[in-house]
């Protein structure tokens, strides 16, 4: 992967240096402002090159930045003239079938600039900009035209020229697989090529996140810093081509969230608003919690493949179904149930059969047993990266699952190269992931996509894509050689990966002992494990531990009570990478839930409950770090308190090192 991105870097560095040589007199520029007037976007042509810039209340946010492409047929970034401009605006509110909030306001002003190259070919390119109160999105549109039909994008030349060298949270593209890197913070100029989303803390009242929206039939975006100018670096095919296209054609939206507080990043819905409205029926969709035969494999109690410790047996699955039924869990994930797990399945993924079970696993009987208990089996489809083998079986497998009453499938791609040749985040991978989601929708199946392309808001269009991985999840606390996810991990994910979409982080570990890798375990307290159910959003939330570790555990009561579908979300207090307090209101009741977490430093957090209904009383059940709790020495102490609160109450809670708290607020008066 490093080879591909270094090629991009060499080519675009020459373009960057030429920016400062552009003529001082530019062609006429067009402007469009956000509905509240604070953000102003300028678009123009300078020396034949299209550019854009962005200001907030007169302050530069993005300096003049060039646009365009290098195609197989030549340059598509120069010799342009402006041949047309159109404007539009929208202010609507739409309802999510599930989400962090029920209603989303879509309020923007749009500017479309129509460009045409001088010369014999007269190729045309439109750029569409939408300016919201909380940021911007823009994309390229290739109109149908005589001199540009089928074409190849060799490079996208979009720039983000920043006026400051801001501290930036990101993970590197090179050397990182599956987007499962550790997020680090340093000035943007010091970073290698990074994957998006990236989040910048410019000053106390200015935060930016750069990403993309509506990634459709295109390559995933990465960004290469050249000083403080960020250059687009698309993930390539094995051929080196970035995108194969045919006009008419559109790119994904390039997005910049502009926020005054860290919390405004989390509550922004800009990415969703830049995706197309829902295309499927939603009456069959569901949300909830699930358990699974999974953590036991990491602890070496079970195996995925056949043998004496095979985890996916009929008897063991019934135990999990019974537990789920007793404790209000809707699903049971079972890994290792189908043929293909024996041997090194990451190298022989084409051996997976997604319909044929191992002899000790009765899929049909278990689906019937689960249904009798009000529970459903979640089918696991690990591909080992062999997508051709998977696509060949998709319709048959999904038809089987639909017939058996299965309504959710967890997909996996544990191999950095799909079919042994293409990168997961290339156009090839993006096409495959979309095919799976669309096929699943036809069979009334929800998808939890592990080893995914980075989410970009597709859940608005296909809300059966309910969650995904694309970050270091709980599994790193089972086997990672560095001891597990760092203490600040939970305090940065909502401001980075979480801005892309729901995270199947799989919280809820109660037993921190690890006989498989004794030096590795969750770098949190028990209370912080509970906080993750509120802080790390997913409409399907797993209780990841082995079920025997929940028996007799008072902390389980919070997991049982915590919803996964919300009417409203508020960030009460936050410092990116240090601490976070988030409140969410249940969509189906008047109850609120609050989660809070800190990094490796102990601290005391205080916050008001002024968002509660005035004149009402709530019973607060508080799960917090107990005396002596410390993620390094004793993560288990947990104190459970109850008190009555109202909208005038202020709560103060001490947090242990890498500690946390979880609160249920139940309205009763």
Structural summary, described in words:
This protein is α+β, with helices and mostly antiparallel strands. It folds into two domains: 2-93 and 101-273, Beta-galactosidase, Chain A, domain 5 (Distorted Sandwich), CATH 2.70.98.10; 288-558, TIM Barrel, CATH 3.20.20. The protein is built from twelve helices and 38 strands. Strands 7, 8, 9, 10, 12, 13, 14, 15, 16, 17, 18, 20 and 21 form a 13-stranded antiparallel beta sheet that branches. A hairpin with a 3-residue loop joins β26 (417-418) and β27 (422-423). The protein is globular and about 75 Å long. The chain starts with a helix and ends with a strand. The relative contact order is 0.09. It comes from Xylanibacter ruminicola. InterPro entries: Aldolase_TIM, GH, GH-type_carb-bd, GH97_C, GH97_catalytic, GH97_N, Glycosyl_hydrolase_97. Residues 294-470 form the Glycosyl-hydrolase 97 catalytic domain.
What class, by secondary structure content?
A: alpha+beta
Mind telling me the CATH superfamily name of the largest domain? Aldolase class I
The CATH architecture assignment of the largest domain turns out to be Alpha-Beta Barrel
Q: What is the percentage of strand-forming residues?
A: 35-45%
**pLDDT below 50 for ≥5 consecutive residues: which ranges?**
1-26
Distance between the termini: 59 Å
How many beta-strand segments? 38
Can you tell me the CATH class of the largest domain?
A: Alpha Beta
Number of helices: 12
Strand count, sense and barrel status of the largest sheet are: 13 strands, antiparallel
Query: What Rg is obtained from the alpha carbons, in whole angstroms?
Result: 25 Å
Mean pLDDT: 95
Overall number of domains: 2
Globular, elongated, flat, extended or rod-shaped: what is the shape? globular
Question: Per CATH, what is the topology of the largest domain?
Answer: TIM Barrel
The amount of helix comes to: 10-25%
Subunit structure: Monomer.
Pfam families: GH97_C, GH97_N, Glyco_hydro_97
Cofactor: Ca(2+)
Keywords: Calcium, Signal
